[in-house]
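Researcher: Next sequence.
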Amino acid sequence: MRRRTLLLLPLWLLAGASVAGAEPIELFMIGTRNSAGQVEQFTYAVDTAHIVKLPHWSPADAAPPQVEYGRALEIVRAKIERSLPPQKDWKFQSIQLQHGTKPASNSVWYYQFEIDVFPRGGNVGDGMILWTIVLLMDGTLLAPDPFK
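Model: Next structure:
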């Protein structure tokens, strides 16, 4: 079983700079089958420097989330259409509003999309891949590519 971490890093971190003591915050870990049928563990994590800049939102707020449901669907559908091989088809299995804890015990709310990907024209169970995509409240996607 392979393990991969999906980590959102600011561009300056990718350029080689570092922040002492800045540990990524793990939102969750999931095991899924890739296109080769192998189980892979994906850890969905966000860099601390990015997470503290995320807009605050809670279901207790009267206002809707910063990325409203309709816009979240548009962003994720566009990602799916860009990433999906032409011989594959897909459908949403579930769409959830989830949260994780960020520093200072505040919650990080995000959308979690579960997508069934299957051979075009085939049954849902034939070679199906469960693809999890996370959309943060600033519009940032955490989405592994199960087709590589």
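Model: The helical segments are 11-14, 48-51, 69-83. The chain is about 15% helix and 45% strand.
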